[in-house]
Amino acid sequence: MKRNPENTQSLSRRDFVRTAATGASAAALAGLGAGQSEAQGRQPHWDLQADVVVIGSGAAGLPAAIEAAENGASVIVVEANSDVGGHAILSGGAVPLGGGTSRQKKYGIEDSPDNVFRDLTDWSVVEPNGFPDYRYNDKEIIRAFADNSAPTFEWLVAHGVVFFEKSPDGAFGSAVGNSVPRENHTDPGAWTQIQIGVPVPHDVALKFLDGGIGFIRPLEAGARKTSMQILLNHRMTSLIRQEPQSGRVVGIRVTNEGKTLNIRARKGVIVATGGSSSNVNFRRIFDPRLTEEYMVGGEPYTSQDASGELAAIAVGASLWGAFNNAGEFGLRLVKAARIGCQYGYGNLEWKPASPIFRLVRASGLTVRDYQNTIFVNQVGLRFYDETKGAYSSNDYNSIQPYTQGSYLNAANIKYSPANFLNAALAGTGESTNGGGPIWAIFDADAVKREHWTVAPPWVDFAEGYFFSANTAADLAAAIVNKYQLKPMPAAALESTITRYNSFVDAGKDAGFGKAAPKYKIQTPPFYAAWATPVVHDTRAGLRINAKCQVVDFSGNVIPGLYCGGESAGGFSQHSLARCSVQGRIA
Fold first, then answer.
1. Is there a contact between 454 and 529 (Cβ–Cβ < 8 Å)?
2. Using an 8 Å Cβ cutoff, are 561 and 317 in contact?
3. How far apart are CA 78 and CA 53, in angstroms?
4. 552: exposed, middle or buried (C-beta count within 10 Å: 0-12, 13-18, 19+)?
5. pLDDT tens-digit profile of 370-425?
6. β pairing state of 249-256 and 235-241
7. HEC sequence for 573-584
8. Of 39, 49, 34, 48, nearest to 1 (Cα)?
9. Which of 167, 330, 401, 402 is the most buried if burial means most Cβ atoms within 10 Å?
């Protein structure tokens, strides 16, 4: 990543020693991204001003902006995209808010803020692979979430968000608590879905719970009823602080159509930029394996570019909650559920009517039965049982019986490693990081069994994410992709297929224990479909306190700087609930 020379800050030896004494020099970390200070009281020319400036207009940014405006503040929202919503507008619309909501009470579910807090800080909850869901959550942050969870549900309803009329459940939950159901599902209504270009019929939406747009559009409408300004296509490039590592954050710098604007924040700046999963160098702070070949769920509509984190680090902010972003639980990294396309996140299906389908290029093939394919790495070798899935996470009734804080919760779990993803990322013996592309290999018979259409717009021949050939050797030679760093050896792929076919004859997978392999790969044409794992959510970020104030490397609050949602650390939950609660608090 190139550093902007306009933002370069020189450090004297004394400055370096002083900042390094904090344990990690925030000024040195500023080299990761853009930052700006106004030394010796010199103020920039302000092009725009407001009491509160919110960076981002997604699940944290819109609630933050509305809450501020309704409490009498003037507000400017800056959004890098051409529309509001961020990743949230593409999401399934699951909102795990509990603690005694009106919906929980209606359906006889007993819950309380204390119960939410105990659930989300329970050290004893672990996944079958041994990874804990809640052990490393920041208790101050969780206490604030628990206390504001039920009020935020009522606030969302009052601001036009419609939830399907059904009891809260555990569907699509990820680290939302074991003791009672809290997951609510937004109705997408008649709004046009970004990913498919048309509205979703009510019965289909209820079945597939695909309602993120029903979360965002009502909040957008509420925001536009206030006097706030929403500046689309305005990208924040830096925060402006009075001194390099001290004083208030007094504003931000943005770019729009080649012009730079300085926007003053009289009371505070709220970072709601949506996380860091799309920034390869940043995400590798937590997991060095996640090199550039791994796409992110929600791309290419929006990018979790770490812009908020980097700008805050540049003015002294600390990172927080690193374990949650490396822990092998939940949805931080998932198996590609759609193959043959670059963007294979399973819960997001792109269709040609989408206004950005020109960027997506292909919808992908959904694998219904992994007996129909084998997965190989870039050198043509199988690496794991294809039927195995990704990491699991705790949700309502995942552990039965369950007693909060009991050692028996972990003791009674049957250990079961979840290593498909780890094997996929292991690489092929190189001294470099990253596992390289993963390819699903199958034949014409598999296409018939899966009822696939192996042509555009379902698969992406043009950019090298889908290939076909009449022999295994020719298929290996055909695979050319910018992330395929070496040609696939034809002999290796031929040998892999031959050996796998022998497992079908034997009824036993002697390589990786796939249960009773069913189908040989023998009928041309043969196919190779991109099936590389997908990065999803961000669960580490800026250090905040219970008030969502950003904290520096010395443990001190940075005046005037706030953060919520996926750009904030200390919380393992993947959800719109975490974002909306913290946005309101900020």
1. no
2. yes
3. 8
4. buried
5. 999 999 999 999 999 999 999 999 999 999 999 999 999 999 999 999 999 999 99
6. antiparallel
7. CCCHHHHHHHHH
8. 34
9. 330
**What pLDDT does 205 receive?**
78
List of the chain residues with pLDDT < 70: 1-41, 209
Ranges of H-type helices in 442-572: 444-450, 472-478, 490-506
**In Å, how far from its chain's centre is CA 226?**
30
Nearest residue to 174 (alpha-carbon basis) of 581, 586, 448, 571: 571
Tokens of 225: 């009823």
- Which residues in 152-190 are b (16+ Cβ under 10 Å) and which e? bbebbbebebebbeeebbbebbbbbbbbbbbbbbbbbbe
- Strand stretches in 100-248, DSSP E: 183-185, 229-231, 235-241
* pLDDT at residue 36 in the model: 54
Tokens of 174: 């990820």
Residues 6+ apart with CB under 8 A from 512: 382, 383, 384, 385
* Dihedral sign for Cα atoms in the order 322, 565, 290, 340: positive
Triad 376, 381, 384: Cα angle to 5°: 65
Residue 292 token pair: 């550039």
- Give CA–CA dist 122/141, Å, rounded: 14
Q: Can you give the pLDDT at residue 2?
A: 36
The first and second tokens of residue 436, run together, are 């390289």
Query: What is the tally of helices (H) and strands (E) in the chain?
Result: 18, 22
d(CA 450, CA 371): 10
